[in-house]
Amino acid sequence: MAMLQFISSGIPRVAVPSTIHCDHLIEAQVGGDKDLARAKDINKEVYKFLSTAGAKYGVGFWKPGSGIIHQIILENYAFPGVLLIGTDSHTVNGGGLGGLCIGVGGADAVDVMADIPWELKCPNVIGVHLTGKLSGWTSSKDVILKVADILTVKGGTGAIVEYYGPGVDSISCTGMGTICNMGAEIGATTSVFPYNKRMKDYLSATNRKDIAEAADQNKDLLTGDSGAKYDQVIEINLSELEP
User: Fold this and answer.
1) Domain Aconitase/3-isopropylmalate dehydratase large subunit alpha/beta/alpha, which positions (predicted)?
2) Given CB 3.0 to 4.6 Å as the disulfide criterion, which of 32, 59, 92, 103 pairs with 54?
3) Where do the DSSP E strands lie in 66-192?
4) Buried/exposed 205-224: b ≥16 CB within 10 Å, e otherwise
5) CA 192, CA 156: separation in Å to the nearest integer?
6) Which region, left, alpha or beta, applies to residue 241 given φ > 0 means left and ψ of -120 to 50 means alpha?
7) Which residues contact 194 (CB under 8 A, 6 or more apart)?
8) What number does CATH give the domain 1-114?
9) Helix pair 140-151, 173-181: axis angle to 10 deg
10) Contact 159, 126 (CB under 8 A)
């Protein structure tokens, strides 16, 4: 629908880098290979339309079988300081790499693609202060489950959740991505972590060392201001957190 709307605008090419992902059309039934083959057959026309429309209007196309969008974003598109708009609620995964990655409706995405200002109500900012460090069987998932326990499924509505504090460094980059990804379950607009060494290592591991070097030079812009005021603060001691 977003591509049909964009085509009807009469604009020859998208105004910002844009990509199409279609793995949500693959239904899990038998196993990976057979399910993929079945999806390609059933959705043949849809895939053909998306790939050719993408080619015509300058939109990248990730063909079926490329992988879930959460990982594609983290491994290819998210980086510290980026503002990324996506039509998947779990676009927010990119907050694990210090980006402000927000899931929106298709019409909002079309606005961005057509160079129309994207607007949202100014969000509150909930600060989650992490101390201690993860240990034993405790994982990043337990951090967001603790936040969800405190805020409930609606407690993050209309807010951006910003994690900070010395405990952040004990969480891997993909772990931070998991926490941001599940922020959708508390209704948060998005979640974000400050740039740190774990992100630097991940960027290097995914062939983006140049971005890591640029982030190092601008670290003060990619971490919270000292004494920043939050609308609400949650304290979590990771050393005391249990699975």
Assistant:
1) 14-243
2) 59
3) 83-86, 100-103, 124-131, 159-164, 190-192
4) ebebeebbeebeeeeeebbb
5) 13
6) beta
7) 98, 163, 164, 168, 222, 223, 224
8) 3.30.499.10
9) 30
10) yes
Domain parsing of the chain, residue ranges: 1-114, 124-237
Under 8 Å between Cβ of 96 and 182:
no
Residue 7: name the closest of 85, 60, 63, 59 by CA. 59
Q: Cα–Cα distance between 203 and 219 in angstroms, integer?
A: 15
CA distance 77 to 163: 21
How many other C-beta atoms lie within 10 A of the C-beta of residue 34? Answer: 10
Whole-angstrom distance, CA of residue 208 vs CA of residue 215:
11
> How far is 75 from 64, CA to CA, in rounded Å?
17
Tell me the per-residue pLDDT of 28-52, one tens digit each, with 9 for 90 and over: 999 999 999 999 999 999 999 999 9
Lookup result for tokens 């891997």: 172
Which residue, chain included where needed, has tokens 């304290």? 235
pTM of the predicted model, to two decimals?
0.92
Contacts of 101 (CB under 8 A, 6+ apart): 73, 78, 82, 83, 84, 85, 86, 91, 92, 93, 94, 95, 180, 190
The packing angle between helices 173-181 and 197-205, to 10°, is 100
C-alpha 99/C-alpha 17 separation (Å) is: 16
Give pLDDT tens digits for 77-117: 999 999 999 998 889 999 999 999 999 988 999 999 999 99
pLDDT of 202 strictly over 90:
yes
